[in-house]
């Protein structure tokens, strides 16, 4: 009986130690940093802190910072979690940029809400991969 109790305590201790360990980000630091910067730009656009033009230029620079993902093959993206995550963030930065561009042309409630929706999706991806 004492032996079972010690074994249970040992297993429980190991489980607690393993659950206390932090997790490694899935996406690269470069992709996460750029995606967070893109999310900040999207929020500043929605807040009216920066213009459409400034947001587009800044997001274009960020998108180009992550252009290395275009060299990944489909197989590489599917086999490597980090490459997949980097590519996913890269794509959503483009989607955010496109929705801001669309909002500048249409300027209605629906296009503004689409920017907010795409910003929310980008933020969810950042949390997922961070």
């Amino acid at each position: 009986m004492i032996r079972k109790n010690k074994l249970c305590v040992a297993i429980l201790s190991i489980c607690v130690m393993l659950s206390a360990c932090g997790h490694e980000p899935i996406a690269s630091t470069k992709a996460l940093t750029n995606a967070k910067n893109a999310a900040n730009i999207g929020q500043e656009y929605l807040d009216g802190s920066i213009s459409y033009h400034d947001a587009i230029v800044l997001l274009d620079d960020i998108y180009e910072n992550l252009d290395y993902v275009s060299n990944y093959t489909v197989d590489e993206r599917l086999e490597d979690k980090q490459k997949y995550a980097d590519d996913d963030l890269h794509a959503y930065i483009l989607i955010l940029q496109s929705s801001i561009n669309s909002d500048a042309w249409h300027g209605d409630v629906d296009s503004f809400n689409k920017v907010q929706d795409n910003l929310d999706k980008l933020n969810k991806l950042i949390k997922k991969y961070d």
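The longest helix spans residues 81-106. The chain is about 80% helix and 0% strand.
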